[in-house]
Amino acid sequence: MSFLDSFTGGSGSGVSDDSWTIGKRIMALTLGGASIILMLGLVAMYALNMINNNSNTLVNEKLSEWDLANAIEAETRQVGINLEKYSTSQDSMHFGEAKKGLATVKAKVDSSRVLAEQYEIQEMNERLNEIEEGITVFDESMTSFYQAYQDLLNYRSLTEQSGTDFVESVEEYLASARTALANIEDDSAASALQRERIENVERVLTDLQSNMKELWRAEVSHNVGALSGIESRFVELRSKFGNINVGNSGEEQMLHSIALATLNDNVETVGAMIEARNTVNQEDSVRQEAYDKILNNTIALAEMAKADAYEQGDQTNSAVSWFIWTLGIGVVVAIISALLIGLFMGRSISSVLKGIIRRLNRGARQVDASADQLSGASQELAESSSQQAASLQQTTSSLEEVSSQIKQTDENSAEAENAMEETKPMVEKGVHAMERMTDAMEDIKASSEETSKIIKTIDDIAFQTNLLALNAAVEAARAGEAGKGFAVVAEEVRNLAQRSAEAAKNTSELIQKSQDSSERGSEVAQEVSDYLEKIEQRVTDVSTLVVEISAASQEQSTGIQQINSVMSEMDNVVQGNASASEESASSAEELSSQSAELNKIVDELAVLVGVEDEVEQASGEWTKKASEMNSNGTNGYGKSHENGHSNGAKRHVGNGSNGQASEKRAQELIPFDEDDDFSEF
Amino acid sequence: MEQTSTEHSESPATGEADVDVEGGKFLTFFLGEEEYAIEILKVQEIIGLMPITPVPKMPEYIRGVLNLRGKIVPVMNLRTRFGFEEIEDTDETCIIVVQDEDYLMGVAVDKVSEVVDIETASIEDVPSVGGQQSEYLAGLGKVGDSVKMIVEVHKVLFDVPDRVLENDAGQQQE
Questions:
Q1: What pLDDT, in 10s, does the model give residues A29-58?
Q2: Under a CB-based contact definition with an 8 Å cutoff, are residues B108 and B77 in contact?
Q3: Predicted ipTM?
Q4: ∠ CA(A130), CA(A136), CA(A140), 5° rounding?
Q5: Nearest-CB residue to A467 (from B43, B94, B115)
């Protein structure tokens, strides 16, 4: 529980943010659960897919491989058995069956080849190659074996036949020889010879018969070494029989030669038979080798397939068990996290609801208090409305004064406009006068320049005169005594020249001064002209302003008329306000009873969510706080308390004494810290 | 007239130590602020500034020559001759034509002043500083409070290389 407390408390501030609606919270819970289930489902799907793949591989590839390998092995063994049967019974039916069986083996190998190529099993391919080689060799050797065996059987019957023939011919010869012996019984020497002859032949016959027996035994036991020994013995027997002296009798000789010919045949057939047996044995060994090869490869293939299949099965098993564990743990985790999220969401929702109820409760109390205040305020409004009406009367009379003043302004502005109109041409005339003055100044300047030129000439003349006077003085000095009077005249002339130079200089200075003055004058005239132009501009501006003022004052007077009418309307409105404010006072009473109802509803909701105690506490606090507010606002709402809010006044009297204490307790008891709430939950 | 001329021709030869300038009428003129004086009998005439033709290969103080009513007269810049700073010509710049013996020489001065009488008693010797006298001055004439420096005309104007004067003399003879 402590863990949960810390969990919800720690992240509570983040998640129980007010911007999260309850719908969002539940949605978040659902989404969280759904996402966990989705994750688990994905894991399970992945697992099932993996198992499916494994079992597909097992069934389609490994088991088929195994099956085919087993079938090939069985068929091959069946072929071997059939061949064995054929070799013991010499029945061609068995050989045919063996052939058929081999074809079946080939077909199986082909289908194995298809499988190997489909799943790209390298080892199986190699094995199949070997098996095919073996089958080819086996097939060929089987055919040649059949041929050789047929030969062998043929030669066997021939040998038997020739042996029988030889025995018959020898029996004939013996009969003839015995007859001859009976005929020559008196002649002991001849009969002894004859007897010896008969005995020799009989011995050959016995030897042959024993040899034949050995031959058949060796043939049946497929003993090739014994057979070749027997063949040499047959050859020896033939030469022995050939060398037997059979007497002079034509019949006997003929019979002996016939027997010798049959014996010769017999020896030949025996040789051929032995040769055939050799071939058969060779083919046998070759076939046996191929057979072993096929079998070995097939068995190896089967073993491989079996091992693979087991491996695949083990893999599937381990995957299944791993996924069982994973899913189990996932389910456990999902259940735990769903529980945690649900718990947490429930807490956060209920905490939000608790907060809302607390606020609702506070709001309801506030509405209650506000209704009281509203009632007082409405009464005040009524009073102030009547005051407003009085003020409106005053305003109306003031407006009339303003109206007359505006009319005055209008007249004045019209006069100003006229004055400005008159000013305008005067200023223009001033500008023209200044221009004329500037021209006059220029004239003065020009004439001064002329004068200064003349002065210059005068100065020049004075200089020349001075020189002349000096020259005259020089000449007079040269003249000595005679020139004395002339020298005086020259001196006087010189003085005159100097004075005129002086006068010219003074005049020149004066003219310079007058030139400077006229220049300054023209500059000043220019300035005056500029100022006049500016004045002209300003006059235009002022006249437009005056026109605007006049228009504005006319508008003002119409505006004042409008204000007057509005004023009377306002008067009506204020009257209406007064009655409306009285109505609102009674509505405030109504509001008060409604808010009491609201309080009840909130209390019921609190009981439903389970925050009764806290709300009760909070509401108790609220009562105290409200009373405190009332005690603080006594100055501001003094009137309203006197007028009819005995309720508030009572509370004030009841709790006003411990105002400071209640302030402190309010801070202690109103739960601002959310962690406290959770700990009680 | 002859007497004076002979006296003046001798004076440079005999020695400058004695005051050999007699009193009489002097033409005074200005170079800058200072006033100088020339014996009036050596002045032929005073003319205003006329076009002066520069002549090549002349000393620096010879400004050139001018045509005075058909006579070619060399013109000397007295400021340069005295080693003063040269200035621009003004309206008052004049040329005093001086005659000594047979030679004529125009002298450009800043301003012609007047004709004054200086008595012989008022003429004093040029003071010598460190045993050297200004060889261009004949004496110092006192008129009232002012001092007029009397120019030693022969030394200043005609103690110049011969070819300056030869040219002139040749023309004179013609």
A1: 788 878 888 888 888 888 888 888 888 888
A2: yes
A3: 0.78
A4: 145
A5: B94
